[in-house]
Amino acid sequence: TSFAAQLDKGKIYFIGNGSDKCIDTITHPNAVFIRGIHPLASKMDRLAFHAFQRERFEDVAYFEPYYLKDFVVTQPRNKVL
Q1: Whole-angstrom distance, CA of residue 24 vs CA of residue 14
Q2: Statement: residue 33 has pLDDT above 70
Q3: Which of 18, 6, 7, 9 is nearest to 69 (CA)?
Q4: Is the pLDDT of residue 16 over 70?
Q5: Which of 16, 44, 19, 17 lies closest to 3, judged by CA?
Q6: Fewer CB near the last or first residue (10 Å), C or N of the chain?
Q7: Three state DSSP letters for 33-56
Q8: How many helices (H) and strands (E) does the chain have?
Q9: What CA–CA distance (Å, rounded) separates 81 from 36?
Q10: Does the pTM exceed 0.90?
Q11: What pLDDT digit, counting tens, does each position of 35-71 carry?
């Protein structure tokens, strides 16, 4: 249900190797999975330039990226010999 509210409003396109992991989980009719596209930071220059032109800046001191899966710190198991 991570994208349920957004999917109810319209189509969401999932790309990259992360989308392969959730293709069987997100089954909403508005979820569109496109294979073979693997975004690279080096290809973001055009998007970054357009954001710059529109003066859309992020305060990197307080910016938190949104990840589909929460980061969870785990402790290694103690091995019993």
Answers
A1: 12
A2: yes
A3: 18
A4: yes
A5: 19
A6: C
A7: ECCCCCCCHHHCHHHHHHHHHCCC
A8: 3, 2
A9: 45
A10: no
A11: 888 888 888 899 899 999 999 988 888 887 777 666 6
